[in-house]
């Protein structure tokens, strides 16, 4: 099994588990999210330990062993991206399973279990033309000011959505053209989405245009831009011209 196949298989299995837990109806609200996070995390760690015992792992829901910093291959996972959306019975939540090799987001799978679809970096993607009016996915509860600045400059259509993975995959599948985040994320929030986006021919960078680097000692990765390649320089130019 290739790394891409493994990432997809593990993400799908965790997604099925999360759907089953939610369908039981035993927990609601925060308790449902806590249980989903914990059980999906246990499943993912067990599968990776069995299939790739020599690789390191960085997970949102596990203690961080800094030995990983010296490892060339590190799986970076978010067992449940969008815990709030999951607990509310929504569809815009995800499972992230990624592999960073020498700090590069090389392999990724993003499962959207409630939508019945999984994206991975090993699949083939069709080219999608950019519409005349760009569409931007933003947080449904707290869109960052940087995103609003770009949206105003481009007269972009705003599409509110939940988890980071769901927003990034909306750009991958052509429902949106720009996903811009600022104000705080961690490597597990965007490594798998970035790997899939890059495989799909999209641009995935920091907000200053710098490359995304993973498996850092501090896993905080506070900003991200995933967009169609032809919009990259336009968006970065707007951001560069905006007073801090």
UniProtKB/TrEMBL annotation:
UniProt keyword terms in alphabetical order: Hydrolase
The organism's place on the tree of life at top rank: Bacteria
Transmembrane feature ranges: none
InterPro entries (alphabetical): CysQ/Inositol_MonoPase (IPR050725), Inositol_monophosphatase-like (IPR000760)
Pfam families for this protein: Inositol_P
Molecular function as annotated in GO: 3'(2'),5'-bisphosphate nucleotidase activity
EC numbers for this chain: 3.1.3.7
CDD domains tied to this protein: CysQ (cd01638)
UniProt name for this protein: 3'(2'),5'-bisphosphate nucleotidase CysQ
